[in-house]
Design goal:
InterPro entries: Ribosomal_uL22 (IPR001063), Ribosomal_uL22_bac/chlpt-type (IPR005727), Ribosomal_uL22_bac/org-type (IPR047867), Ribosomal_uL22_CS (IPR018260), Ribosomal_uL22_sf (IPR036394). Helix content is 36%, strand content 40%. The protein is an alpha+beta fold. It has a four-stranded antiparallel β-sheet, covered by helices on one side. A hairpin with a 5-residue loop joins β3 and β4. α2 runs antiparallel to α3.
């Protein structure tokens, strides 16, 4: 499930995207999130497409969704945006029972996580400094 929030004030234009109950460990998602935090939108896409981890695909979908919402809802340009905040939080653990020999059962625990990404527009002063 993906939820979107937008803060439309002129001085603080940001898009917040939250994906809930992603079926992967927090630590596996955290090593991908640490690589993209604070990077520009184009650089983030290149990093995520080339990373060999399974966790990069749901995060790539989130970044695409945040950029599309920023463009559609607030009229922001993707080239002028960057990942201002990215975090992974632990969610519920899905528990199942696997049948074993002699009528016994073995618990299977599948961890899930919540991924939050905030896409923010670069300020004019930040853009002037980078040139």
């Amino acid at each position: 499930m993906i939820k979107n929030w937008s803060s439309g004030r002129e001085e603080n234009r940001e898009i917040k995207v939250l994906a809930q109950h992603i079926c992967m460990s927090v630590l596996k998602a955290q090593r991908v999130i640490d690589q993209i935090r604070g990077r520009s939108y184009e650089e983030t896409l290149m990093i995520l497409e080339l990373m060999p981890y399974r966790a990069s695909y749901p995060i790539l979908q989130l970044v695409y969704s945040a950029a599309a919402n920023a463009n559609h809802n607030m009229g922001l340009n993707e080239a002028d945006s960057f990942i201002s905040k990215a975090e992974v939080n632990r969610s519920a653990i899905v528990k199942k029972l696997r049948p074993r020999a002699r009528g016994r059962s073995y618990p299977i625990k599948k961890p899930t996580c919540h991924i939050t990404i905030v896409l923010k527009e670069k300020s004019k002063s930040f853009l002037d400094q980078s040139i």
